[in-house]
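Handout, section B. The chain below has 530 residues.
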Amino acid sequence: MKNIFLSLYLFFWGFWLFADNYSTQKSLDVLHYEFQIEIFEEHDSIKGVATIQFKVLAETPSVFFDLDQSMMVDWVKLEGKKIAPSTQNNQITLKPKNPFKPGIYVAKINYKGIPTDGLIISKNKYENRTFFGDNWPNRAHYWFPCVDHPSDKATVDFKIIAPAKYQVVANGVLKEKSNTNNGKFLTHYSSNQVLPTKVMVFGAAEFAVDYITSINGNLLESWVYPENKKEGFYDYALAANVLDFFEEKLGDYPYDRLANVQSKTRYGGMENAGCIFYFEGSVTGFRDSEELIAHEIAHQWFGNSASEKSWEHIWLSEGFATYLTGLYLLENKDWNAFNEYMFKAKQKVFQFNQNYPNASIIPAEINDLNSLLNPLSYQKAAWVLHMISNQFENGDGWDLFKTYHEKFKYGNATTNDFFDLVNENPEISKDQFANQWLKSSTIPEVEVGYKINTSKKEVTFKFKQIHKSKEVFILPIEVSWLYPNSIGKTVKTVWLNQKSQSITFPIDQTIGNIEFNPFGKLLVKFSAKD
């Protein structure tokens, strides 16, 4: 997801702590959801029947599903028999007479109400009525019963009953579209790939639809408002090149199709699996949302397919999408476009750190999940991945990223899981690296200087870590210089591992154009010593 607003709050310093306080049920694993939902032209109420197939892993007296109290439950059936559920604290608890034994069960929940969030029922910019699921982070339970947490992934079917004027888009592939007895249409989509609830959605509106096949053979669709279909089809056709690029780098696209949808999402874009929702202003006819499209398509691999196990690991989703957008610019535009992109990211991190000096990528406490949408989980995390990539001999991390996705495809991962795959550089361990950049709230500041001794034919570089904290960062700082009439730079790497440090290099002759961090590989504030 790419946010178009910034929710800020004061973080607490912490690392590896499982700050996610969701009450996960270790004995429950949802296997499949089927949601039959009827929407109406005359009012904002919905009628739903949720059929949930779930597996009980160990004997337990009850299981619960998240469902907002705004939804009224008419009845519940467990294994075809009606039972009396308990509905409180935005949960619906199923407690049969006898405890659940290990095995597979089916519950059916009939409910109705006006969603207070999650399913956004409103009007688009052309004053036409629309319906769009907008679940991130845990807003799915406002309109359907579920385990509203990324750790429990399941397949899903959406059967949407809507007035004939609407076209319906959802995750998965279209299985059926047929008339109903009340003059409406039933549209049925089915996803055979497991998804977290944050990206399970449908959208209903008056759409114009364009069908495209990418070079690699992926089925692409553009769903836009009819009033701006010329501009929308042109803008969203960019997705073909983006999708092919990531598939070549990361392996097969993990879903059956990709629909790019103009919508009423509150975000710049929401990466719903195989069914991305973009804000309505993304259609301009000038193709100025290329970075946004790349960001959301990158999420199909990272965030949707390989998902964070709990919310504090969101950097594994947003950091990847942010960094991979930069790599897309690098290969499809040029080095200058990439450098400018990463420079802007760095400036956002510096500014955020100045305003919130105690903030770290992985917080010890989360009071508001939306507060995770900040420059740490996006831009700083992208820089973390960039610095990891620079540890490799060839300077890129594509093999690591591909291996990580393949291992956790359709599953969940933690920060530790990712770092278990990171090859250690002999100069710095993965634990040191992770502690510096994910645990610490400090952005390292290094004062640099040099002295050239022409008689001894040597140059001495001096470094001093001047950030306010007592932390000593281990930093591979590159220094470069030019000899007169030379074509290329002479580049040396200094492993800084003390608060103050000097190192001397021999030189053949007078040197000039001395630079520190010449290729911008480090998220460090440098200042020159007078």
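Note. Residues 335-355 form the longest helix (21 residues). Compare this with the example in section A.
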